[in-house]
Task: structure prediction
Amino acid sequence: MPATELLVHPWLPLAFLLAAVLYASVGHGGASAYLAVMGLVGMAPAEMKPIALTLNAGVSLVALAAFARAGHFNFGLFWPLVVASVPAAFVGGWLESPEPVFKLILAVALVFGAWRLTFRRAEEEFVIHDPNRGVLLGLGLVIGLLSGLIGIGGGIFLTPLLILFRWAPAKPAAAISAAFIFANSLSGLCGFLVKGQSVPSHTWILLPVVLGGAWLGSGWGSRRFRSLTLQRALAIVLVVAAAKFVII
Result:
């Protein structure tokens, strides 16, 4: 789809803006929503993946800056995840996307995660547990591979797991996921580009739009939202992501 095609779908930048606001509010980059929107307008899969990864990297970086400035980033929990995920995301970006049945399974898992988060108790009511480092390495490996394959950063899988297993409260989970998404998105994009592919030109038209949305959303999420509000917003994000897997 050439850059002029954006004029045929004037609502497209608005859809990307709204997705960036919502996703950045929970520390995510929005790739799942971007992929769903691009699938609806009939963009070619070869274009969709690099666009989603590029926009994802930009939005997650803005979100990371906001949540880190607010004091929510936990490096000790982050580094075992990213050490394993980055090389796996590179391999996933180089490989072809998985089959539709695989995506349907992921969609069901995301809906289940959204349901659990919707009825989750306040974080003050339970004790945060320290995860085993080996478990974090294994989790990073699996999520990184999935991220590169599908063309996302992996936050839709990581954030709910951090909260549901009581490894981190909502806002630290958002900060860790933002950094995780940024690293995986860049790695997956490199895996895609190393095959001689390129990023479509209209990506650079959409990038300022989503960065503006990221600034708004991450500001609200990192400082104004209560933890339970953040969990509800994350549940919406997971449902949107599940819809993407069904649509594409």
About this structure: Residues 45-69 form the longest helix (25 residues).
